[in-house]
Amino acid sequence: MSSPFLEATALSCERDWRLLFENLDISLDSGQMLQVSGPNGSGKTSLLRVLAGLRPATSGTVRVKGQPLVSRSADLLWIGHAAGIKGLLSAEENLAWLCALHRPASRAQIWQALEAVGLRGFEDVPCHTLSAGQQRRVALARLYLDSPPLWILDEPFTALDKQAVSQLEDHLAEHCREGGLVVLTTHHSLSRVPDGYRDLDLGQHGA
Ligand SMILES: Nc1ncnc2c1ncn2[C@@H]1O[C@H](COP(=O)(O)OP(=O)(O)OP(=O)(O)O)[C@@H](O)[C@H]1O
Fold first, then answer.
1. Torsion sign across C-alpha atoms 37, 200, 22, 70
2. Looking at this predicted complex, what is its ipTM?
3. Tell me, what CATH number does 54's domain have?
4. How far does residue 84's CA lie from ligand 1's centre (Å)?
5. Residues 83, 133: contact at Cβ < 8 Å?
6. Phi, psi of 54 (to 5 degrees)
7. Residue 129 resides in a domain
8. What is the torsional sign of CA 71, 37, 180, 68?
9. C-alpha of residue 47 to centroid of ligand 1, in Å
10. pLDDT at 206 over 60
11. Domain count for the chain
12. pTM (predicted TM-score)
């Protein structure tokens, strides 16, 4: 039997001597979406960072395709709750830089991705002059470029208007339908979820 794409076993996480969650098991395969929910401070971001290999768990293991997770794994795309873009660079430059680190993209592909997130005409202005929602769209444009199957997204809907929220929901569901996987946190209640949707409430499963 093949291993799940993402498998976390007996995960526990402590921060500042506080136990956020313990003994958490997660198994996720192609087509599935996991929404990590729970109150502020319950450990959602901490869990996502552990699953993305950006911080160690206090105990437990994370495996991707049966292998121990390595930091900067090429199998996953992480977008944190801060837009994570450089204000002095343009939208195009930000994406070119991020893509160069992971999966190179041509100028035409980057412009297409920016168009997909409604940023046509804003490709070459410095990002610090964009609104918060536009800056979020720059970060999310990576979801419209060649990307790994597993997307780990911390509060991706922050600052987006209604139309952009709806578009992103559709895009995430489509990614799952096409065999991708999504792990996300959001306080927004999703109105369209794929068949393989699951919720993990750290308010109930946390420590
Ligand atoms: N860099 C840090 N150093 C120490 N403690 C931290 C750090 N980041 C977060 N924490 C603590 O870990 C706990 C969980 O934080 P986390 O950001 O994972 O929660 P969250 O569920 O994502 O919250 P929110 O819904 O507010 O985004 C909080 O009590 C927080 O104070």
1. negative
2. 0.95
3. 3.40.50.300
4. 18
5. no
6. -95, -15
7. no
8. positive
9. 10
10. no
11. 1
12. 0.94
Domain carrying residue 200: 1-74+182-207
Token digits for 192?
């369209």
Nearest CA to ligand 1 atom 29: 41
Residue 64 sits at the vertex; the CA angle it makes with 106 and 46, to the nearest 5 degrees, is: 90
Residue 147 one-letter amino acid = S
CB atoms under 10 Å from CB of 172, counted, come to 24
In the chain, the largest separation of any two C-alpha atoms, in whole Å, equals 51
- Residue 117's CB: how many other CB atoms inside 10 A? 24
- The whole-number average pLDDT for the span 176-180 is 95
Tell me the CA–centroid distance for residue 3 and ligand 1, in Å.
Answer: 31
Could you tell me if residue 121 is inside a domain? no
Residue 70 is predicted with a pLDDT of 83
* Model confidence pLDDT, tens digit, residues 96-140: 998 887 788 999 999 999 999 999 999 999 999 999 999 999 999
The whole-number pLDDT of residue 205 equals 62
Specify if 174 maps to a domain.
no
Which residue's alpha carbon is at the smallest distance from atom 18 of ligand 1? 43
Residues in the chain: 207
- Within-domain flag for 105: no
